[in-house]
Design goal:
Structural class: alpha+beta
CATH superfamily: YlxR-like
Strand content: 15-25%
Number of strands: 5
Number of helices: 2
Helix content: 25-40%
CATH topology: Hypothetical Cytosolic Protein, Chain: A
CATH architecture: 2-Layer Sandwich
Number of domains: 1
Strand order of the largest sheet: 4-3-5
Largest sheet: 3 strands, antiparallel
């Protein structure tokens, strides 16, 4: 029996890489249709992105086909990713 703890991995919708859940930023579309950043237990349609603006640009192209997320404000997401990236750099 292994003594190691289970580490959840998630996939970035931009680049498609799999990373630890802690390293990703989760975005959730709530009932009103707005996108919020939050922990994994928020209810609603969600997706994960790497804390990299290149992934956001790639996701923007891919998400044109996703009907439920067409109302995403990408400039707001760009701001949030920049803010989250700054927080992660401060912690290190």
């Amino acid at each position: 029996m292994s003594l190691s703890k289970h580490i959840p991995f998630r996939m970035c919708i931009g680049c498609g890489s799999r990373r630890k859940k802690d390293e990703m930023i989760r975005f959730v579309q709530d009932a009103s249709g707005s996108i919020v950043t939050g922990p994994g237990n928020l209810r609603g349609r969600g997706f994960y992105l790497c804390p990299d603006l290149v992934c956001l640009d790639t996701a923007r192209k891919k998400m044109r086909r996703v009907r439920s997320l067409k109302s995403v404000d990408f400039e707001e997401l760009r701001y949030r990713i920049s803010r989250e990236k700054g927080k992660q750099e401060e912690e290190e």
